[in-house]
Amino acid sequence: MMEKTPGLESQIAGSLWGAVVGDALGVPAEFRSRQDLAQNPIVTMTGNGTHHQPPGTWSDDSSLIFCTVESLLECNHLVAQDMAERFLRWLRRGYWTPYGEVFDLGIATRQALARFAEGRPVARCGGREEFDNGNGSIMRLIPVSLWVCNTTPEEAVASSHLASIITHAHPRSQMVCGFFTIIVRGLYQQLSPLEALKQAWSQAEALYSTDEEFHNEWPALHKMHPDILPHMSESEVPSSGYCVHTLEAAVWTLLHTTNFEECVLRAVNLGEDTDTTGCVAGALAGLTYGIEAVPAQWTRALARHDDVTEIISRFTERLTRR
Length: 322
Description:
By secondary structure, this protein is mainly alpha-helical. The protein contains 14 helices and no strands. The chain starts with 7 loop residues before the first helix and ends with a helix.
């Protein structure tokens, strides 16, 4: 149990900082196995490793989060075309990268942005095949999820789908993003992680299980049931780049830890897609515990610290004044 409930401003800032911190913690460990990390765990912000980057380097996850934040601030609502243009600028010009170049990129995102660059309408760019269900849309979703927290569940889910479709248009990827956003709504309302999961399951089941487009996909989220996920052991929680695994792993670590630091380190040390699991878990933990719970030595170590501070401050101020 938290001793003190964070205020709204602290929650929003904590969620965004938490996502970037979780991402940066995971970058040097990406693709390492759980067994390897059990022997040599990530315990703080480190560098080199998988991508040979300095400590505090964040990946494509945070780059696309910042592009999303910037789009929401400039357009004052979700405009998929504008987001896609910023994503393409990131890919082609290194926009919102730590050091001016892209060093990590998902296949589905690259293919979708190639279609967009060729002039395909943004709603038809994201992949729709079974193998297009990577975690490249949930990893960047937290700004959208926060932006729509004061709307209805139906509106929040629709916005999540719209954001996902830019790069990941398969109904399962959209559904994972919708479920994630409903959990974010519950945490934003200061429900406990378990209560947020219970509320999310109830609302998502009502929205997806009978919907013509999604009802065949709904069983893919069966492990998110509040009678199942909290009782799973770590060995039962995969941490691959599959969108369902990322959602399960991030929420599972939130349920099985009691503070921000413990949550993100446990998420990263699950192995495999460490940056994205850390990013999504960090977003949820930062929202739960607030910015005060995010270690200052980790935020100070982040690449482009001043730029990150400025854009997160702008976003936080905009949301708290609406």
